[in-house]
Amino acid sequence: MDVLSLLFSPLTAILSVAYFFYWYGTSTFDYFKAQNIAGPKPLPYVGNLWGVWRENIPKFDKKMTKKYGKTFGYFDGTLPNLYTTDINLIKSVFVKDFDHFVNRRTFSVKRKVFRKMMSIIQNQEWKNVRSSVTPVFTTGKIKLMSKMITECANRLVIKFKTIADSQGKLDAKMQFSAFTMDVIARCAFGMTINSLGEKDDPFMTKAKAVFSPPANKSPLILIPFMFPKMLTYVSDSIFFPKDFYFFVNILEDLIKQRHHSTDKYNDFVEVATESISEYSKSVGGTWNREDVDEIVTAQSLLFLLAGFDTTATTLTNSAFLLARNPEVQEKLYQEIMRKHEKFEDVNHEMILDFPYVDHVIHEVLRMYPPVPRVERACNKEVNYDGVQIKKGVVVTVSAFALHYDEEYYPDPYRFNPDRWDPESEIKPNPNVFMPFGMGPRNCVGMRFAMEEMKIALCTIVKHFRFFPVKETPEEMQFEDGFLGVVQPIHATVGIETR
Ligand code: HEM
Questions:
Q1: Distance 25 CA to ligand 1 centre (A)
Q2: pLDDT, position 232
Q3: Cα(486)–Cα(216) distance, rounded to whole angstroms?
Q4: Cβ of 302 below 6 Å from ligand 1
Q5: Rounded distance between C-alpha atoms, residue 200 and residue 210, angstroms
Q6: CB contact set of 79 (below 8 Å; sequence gap of 6+)
Q7: Radius of gyration of the chain (CA)
Q8: Would you say residue 40 lies in a domain?
Q9: Lowest mean pLDDT among 53-57, 159-163, 252-256, 453-457
Q10: Residue 473's pLDDT band (boundaries 50, 70, 90)?
Q11: What is the pLDDT of residues 302-348, one digit of tens each?
Q12: Residue 147 phi/psi, 5° resolution?
């Protein structure tokens, strides 16, 4: 065979196509090697994603950091992702050079309402929506919503009393999920759901469908992360199944009703509508009435998505850690009783200046941050002491790896709320505490979440004592898989009335 016929033979064509596919699936893999940044060996197309699927994110991230150090290179498919728990790098990316890192990775969503959620919009649009929504979470506005939280917490006491008297043990995740759903229904959907976890409540049933779509349990969920361009076409149906429209419809009807009402509700929909409309006017009418309605609907829906499971999981983890650490639980109870000498009820005023409950929740969030990873995508190249971060590269901080680093947290496996005492010698540096992320794009609902968790915890610990039963694990275990919020398993604790 002469050279020309070999060049145009079917074998050459097959080999060229095979080479092209191999090249395409590995073309970025020199990125970290060229900079002498260590990291696990990636596989074509898959990158390093497969490893995480077989374990859960907390275990996986701690293991990787132990093996490769504070900063290492990782590939989501072919996308380079710089993992770091280095305090200086974190500060630079999340705070100092925020202009280079305004967004998370692109998560293109086209459907009406979903496309306006603050967590996925980018650049100037994000800046506008974030500025317009931030006033909703000031102390004054939270104080108004706090009354609704208190009512929900009081209803939870009635439910827990029945459980304590009849069963003596509590499926913590299920009951706290019912509570946080009750709060969200009141504060973000203008509804009162009285069932607190009863199986046939449609709000709860739909929420369960939305929060555990079958795709999340299958390794197929990794495919869009391996082929980010594909994410653009499939993310709508993978991440926002039909059941979401139950909530969108409630919100759209509610917003229409509110246009014809002069009553005051003090809930998220009302306060957000005022705040977003005012912002729009202040910048020369960026949004018309229809835009404002869509933005409000999107943020209310996001309130459910971002605020339900995170808060329920943290309360579950709190019950578990208090059951396993009776001396902390007793101290918290005594502090609550001391507060009661001045305040008759658990409410906004009582928890306003209550350091010990803050320390307990901080320590729960340190040990079990419900959102295990926080990321930023670089939009303008930048260089830190020889680490070059090109446009498009993602920087990720693993909250678990960070929160268990002995350099930052001595004796990290010990549940020790006192480490947060300002007088403590081991008081952590605020830059290494990231349950709510960091910088201008941190969790906008943080103050609301803290209010809700403090009120719930004080109300419950005042009335009940948690203790371990045979189902209570020695250490909290989390579900395997690629989950955005880590899911505690076997979170059953004993409960008795005080
Ligand atoms: C324990 C409860 C919660 C935890 C641990 C939590 C954690 C987080 C984290 C880690 C982020 C990413 C921050 C970053 O990238 O720097 C985030 C973003 C966000 N959270 Fe939360 N969150 C909680 C509750 C809530 C609640 C109750 C709401 C709503 C009222 C909420 C709304 C949001 C929104 C809208 C974003 C996106 C912010 C943006 O992109 O500008 N979160 N949250």
A1: 33
A2: 64
A3: 12
A4: yes
A5: 16
A6: 28, 47, 105, 228, 392, 393, 394
A7: 24
A8: no
A9: 53-57
A10: very high
A11: 999 999 999 999 999 999 999 999 999 999 999 999 999 999 999 99
A12: -60, -40
Both ends of the chain: CA-CA distance in Å?
Answer: 91
Q: Burial letters for 81-114: b for 16+ Cβ neighbours within 10 Å, e otherwise?
A: bbbbbbbebbbbbbeebeebbbbbbebebeeebb
Q: Does 437 sit in the ligand 1 pocket, CB within 6 Å?
A: yes
The DSSP element (H or E) to which 99 belongs, if any, is none
Q: Give the pLDDT of residue 67.
A: 97
Local structure of 56: helix, strand or coil: strand
Distance between CA 442 and CA 93 in Å, rounded? 12
Instruction: Give the C-alpha separation, 355 to 109, whole Å.
Output: 41
CA–centroid distance, residue 376 to ligand 1 (Å): 14
Whether 419 lines ligand 1, by a CB cut-off of 6 Å, is no
Q: Which atom of ligand 1 is nearest to the CA of 375?
A: 15
CB contact set of 354 (below 8 Å; sequence gap of 6+): 335, 339, 454, 458
Q: Is 179 in the pocket of ligand 1 (CB under 6 A)?
A: no
pLDDT number for residue 322: 98
User: Both tokens of residue 89?
Assistant: 């790098």
Instruction: Identify whether 19 is part of a domain.
Output: no
Strand partners, 338: none
Atom of ligand 1 lying closest to residue 376 CA: 15
Q: Are 66 and 412 in contact (CB under 8 A)?
A: no
Residue 93 Cβ inside 6 Å of ligand 1? The answer reads: no
Of 107, 125, 136, 436, best ligand 1 pocket probe by most atoms within 8 Å of the beta carbon: 436
The CATH number of whichever domain residue 402 belongs to comes to 1.10.630.10
Range of the domain at 151: 54-497
CB of 310 shorter than 6 A to ligand 1: yes
Which pLDDT tens digit goes with each residue over 276-298? 999 999 998 889 999 999 999 99
287 in a structural domain: yes
Dihedral of CA atoms 364, 366, 372, 376 in degrees, nearest 10, equals 140
Distance CA 482, CA 255 (A): 35
Dmax over Cα atoms in the chain, in whole Å? Answer: 98
Residue 57 and residue 484: Cα distance in Å, rounded?
9
User: Which residue is it, tokens 């050079």?
Assistant: 97
Q: Residue 7 and residue 482: Cα distance in Å, rounded?
A: 45
Pick from 103, 126, 112, 441: which is nearest to 291 by CA?
112
Domain count within the chain:
1
Indicate whether residue 188 lines ligand 1 (CB < 6 A). Answer: no
* Residue 339 placed within a domain: yes
The pLDDT of residue 189: 86
Please tell me the residue having the least CA distance from ligand 1 atom 21.
Answer: 443
